[in-house]
Amino acid sequence: MEKKRPYGLSLLLSTVILLLEAVLALVVSVLDGLTRQSWATAPTGGSPLFVVLLPVLVLFAAVAAAALSVALVLPIAALSDALGRRFGGREVWWWVPVVAAAVSLVLVGATTVVTGSPEPVGFAGAWLLTAVALTVPALVCRSRPKRVFGPVFLWGLTAVVLTGVLGGVAFGTGVLTVYRPPVVPRAALVGTWSDGRGGLLTLEADGRATVSGLDGTSGDRGEACVGHGTWGYGTGTSRHARGVGVDVSPCGRTVWDVGGTADRPTLHRTVVRSVEPDDVDRYELTRRAAR
């Protein structure tokens, strides 16, 4: 019987696998993001600062992966072996996904309590993905073969590259399509739009506009705007979207980009609160059903 892999090597192996999973998740996220509406108000090019910060980001990711390995992956592998010996007299691999699923359920459940309850489908998806992400490194770490780092890295890199290639092929053949804002006629925008929190924007066919209680329509002050004015349909804040420009006194001019789909268009805008890239408020309006 082969000896178990030393703890230090198991930790390194788990860290490498988690990093590969993170890269794979990033590739899938980018591909998925191309098919969905983006909140970006302008195209963002690559920054030289990113190249400088890349080693720091890689180091941070490695430290985080190592911490997750110590806190979750290796304990899952050890507990699975202990449960196998306790209830079956020997270590069996299938205890790993069972324990990982239980741990994932606790993690996702705790996160849900803190951040708010998601839809059941979202909860189930997060639980399944977390369970798989923990199961794979735990299974590999409890394996006995000594020469495992090479195959793990090779298969992981292959999975990342293959996912990217398949995504490119899917977009090239039309199986997946890059999201483009709908081109709707001006008449389709006439009506009342709601933010779902009591704020309303009413667009009249003759060019008149009425704003009532919309947050973020008065610049950096972030005050709710109430007033009457005019609106027009032209260039938006996004490179691809056409926008609805609303001039209402005393709120000033705001531009809402047209998003959603041709059947269910939406109006949205992003208000930057400071120089920090994440310090923004996002607002979306949907057409209120006529009564």
Question: Structural class per helix/strand content?
Answer: alpha+beta
Count every beta strand, where a strand is a DSSP E run of 2 or more residues. Answer: 8
What integer value in Å does the Rg equal? 25 Å
- Mean pLDDT across all amino acids: 84
Largest sheet: 8 strands, antiparallel, barrel
Task: Give the terminus-to-terminus CA distance.
Answer: 76 Å
Bin the helical content: 40-55%
- Which residue ranges are poorly predicted, with pLDDT under 50 across at least 5 consecutive positions? 41-46
User: What count of helical segments does DSSP give?
Assistant: 5
Tertiary shape: elongated
Strand fraction:
15-25%
Order of helices and strands: HHHHHEEEEEEEE
Strand order of the largest sheet: 1-2-3-4-5-6-7-8
The gist of it:
The chain is of the alpha+beta class.
Q: How would you explain this protein's 3D organization?
A:
This protein is α+β, with helices and mostly antiparallel strands and 291 residues long. It is built from five helices and eight strands. It has helices at 7-34, 48-88, 95-115, 120-141, 149-173; strands at 191-194, 200-203, 208-214, 225-235, 242-249, 252-260, 265-272, 280-287. Strands 1-2-3-4-5-6-7-8 form an eight-stranded antiparallel barrel. A hairpin with a 7-residue loop joins strand 7 and strand 8. The radius of gyration is 25 Å and the shape is elongated.
Map the helices and strands.
Layout: H1 7-34, H2 48-88, H3 95-115, H4 120-141, H5 149-173, E1 191-194, E2 200-203, E3 208-214, E4 225-235, E5 242-249, E6 252-260, E7 265-272, E8 280-287
Antiparallel strand pairs: 1-2, 1-8, 2-3, 3-4, 4-5, 5-6, 6-7, 7-8
Helix pairs in contact: 1-2, 1-4, 1-5, 2-3, 2-4, 3-4
